[in-house]
Amino acid sequence: DFVLKPVVPEEFQVRVSNLIQLRHALDYLEDQHRILYDMAMHDRLTSAYNRHYINERTQVLIREAKEACSPLSLIVLDIDHFKRVNDNYGHSMGDAVLVAVATVLSEHIGKSGVVARMGGEEFMVVLPGIDEFTGSGIAEKTREIIEDLEPCGLSVTASFGIAQLRPEESYESLFGRADSAMYEAKRAGRNQVVSAE
Asked: Which of 121, 132, 172, 197 is catalytic?
């Protein structure tokens, strides 16, 4: 904006006031956009990232890992016998279990990886810069913490599958191998970590 000379004080004051109001409106709009984006990328119940976010973010992390020739591991975990929790204790208790597990994942893994709720009782963790051996140790420690958790007095366990990114491997293939390893952990008796082949 500009003001022609000679400057009329009243006109100048109105223009400055209008510019300040416009700036406040734009700041408010930016804040609302940030809030909406945050809501769109997080699971409302657990506050972990959601499937939409993790799918996009993992593609970027895979590309970066390949460019840097750096390891990347992916963990898929599923809460064991979760349907029984909902059936026997109600969905509010099931929600409490989901929140408790998500909190453990965020606190224990959050700094070294990206945690997301994929839906239902399934979670995914992406560990950039971490190989399968180290990732398995992280998964095992997390499994132990969940086993000792006992949210709302309930005994809860989870089955983990982990896979390390192979050269030229796609996200879909990596996820498929980790998911298959998780189902192998279920078949082998649950409450364990299985590495993908």
From this structure: 121
Find residue 160's DSSP bridge partners: 77, 193
Annotated catalytic, 107? no
| Tokens describing residue 8 | 């009329």
pTM for this model (two decimals): 0.84
Residue 148, C-beta contacts closer than 8 angstroms, at least 6 positions apart: none
What is the pLDDT tens value at each position of the chain, 197 positions in all?
Answer: 667 788 888 888 888 898 899 999 999 888 888 878 777 899 999 999 999 999 999 999 999 999 999 999 999 999 999 999 999 999 999 999 999 999 999 999 877 899 999 999 999 999 999 999 999 999 999 999 999 999 989 999 999 999 999 999 999 999 999 999 999 999 999 999 999 98
